[in-house]
Amino acid sequence: MSCPHRFRFVTVVLAAGLLGGIAAGRAVAEEPVLQEEESDIVRLSPVTPHRVLVHDEAGQHARDGRVYVVDADAGKLLGMVQAAYNANVVQDPGGKAFYVAETVWSRGNRGDRLDLLPAYDPQTLTITNDQVLPGRALVTPKQNDLAVSNDGKHVYVFSMVPTSAVYVVDTAAHKVTQTVDIPGCALIYPWGNSGFTSVCADGSLANVSLAGDHATVSHTAPFFDPEKDAVFEHSPTRRPDGKTWFISYTGLVYPASLSAGTKIEPAWSLQEAAGLERPPAGDAPFVKAWRPGGWHLSALHYATGHLFVLMHQGTFWTHKQAGTEVWELDVSTHKLIRRIPLRQPSMMVGVTQDASPLLFTGDKDGTFYVWNATTGKLLRQIHHLGDDLYYTVALGE
Known about the structure:
Layout: H1 4-30, E1 51-56, E2 66-71, E3 76-82, E4 88-91, E5 98-105, E6 113-120, E7 127-133, E8 146-148, E9 154-159, E10 165-170, E11 175-181, E12 185-191, E13 195-200, E14 205-211, E15 214-219, E16 237-238, E17 243-247, E18 252-257, E19 263-264, E20 268-269, H2 270-273, E21 289-292, E22 298-301, E23 306-314, E24 323-330, E25 335-346, E26 349-351, E27 358-362, E28 368-372, E29 378-382, E30 389-393
Antiparallel strand pairs: 1-2, 1-30, 2-3, 4-5, 5-6, 6-7, 8-9, 9-10, 10-11, 12-13, 13-14, 14-15, 16-17, 17-18, 18-19, 18-20, 21-23, 22-23, 23-24, 24-25, 26-27, 27-28, 28-29
Protein name: Amine dehydrogenase
Main location: periplasm
Signal peptide: 1-29
């Protein structure tokens, strides 16, 4: 004879026991008091010649730009700081700080605009001063939008608010000490501790001498034709003495000693240095030849005077095409030292400034390549370091 009531009673008792056990288990699990977590800040080692900053424009989502801190010897990412929309980065020549010029809006993509120049501690990657700027040029990142004097006492910020001008920032006082108007001219090529030069629309240069809170501007005669053969904005400057090598779309190199009285030397040809014919300019735009191109297309090793230029085969208006080779040239003898074939085309080239220099390139997938700049041999690579690697900044550069 079955006993349904007894079965129901046993089931209820068992269920109650299980629930009680679970509840007891929960009580036991909740009894231990977790220790409070303590946060800390990891300090990186001091800046070395082979510890470089790599600017990532992140072009498909440019509000999320970044600056990577990379150990190029180990091929290792050490850290990262955010670099807002179309930012620029420059490093103190002694490695004491680095600066990121950036722009944000109060409502994300709209609202009140705020232009900033945060200074970062290179060992903790924390902001030591978050300076507000009167404005800055909000264009695609170019190294010559932001520059530093050779002693690190002044940062120069190119602005177009409302017209072309350069803000001179005192890095100790953290303030803009003066605004220098440069109508019809743009960008910053620093020389020494007392001035900079800008490129003008008519093919001339504007030289700005700084003395205290006073600025004197002088102009050179035009030396290139901006309609037929313009010079690249990313031409390299040796900041300590202001020697600059302006590279044209066809591959002419104009050596210039920048100062209050800038001197420009006769041009020489990259292609002729390599034993090739000099290609025609914009009046014969469809002739295919080896030409310079890319974004940050050239870099200079100060001590040796070795110039590294991205080169590709193309017509005149292919000046933004990625380089398939890096040509290494001696700026004193105007001779080609070597041609370095790249595994993947690169839009940027960079070099360190020590006695055992490293060379850097990148590809469209954001892979970062490290080369021996003395032998031209590939040493290592960091796969997909970022999205759009625009340029590098090395100690003393």
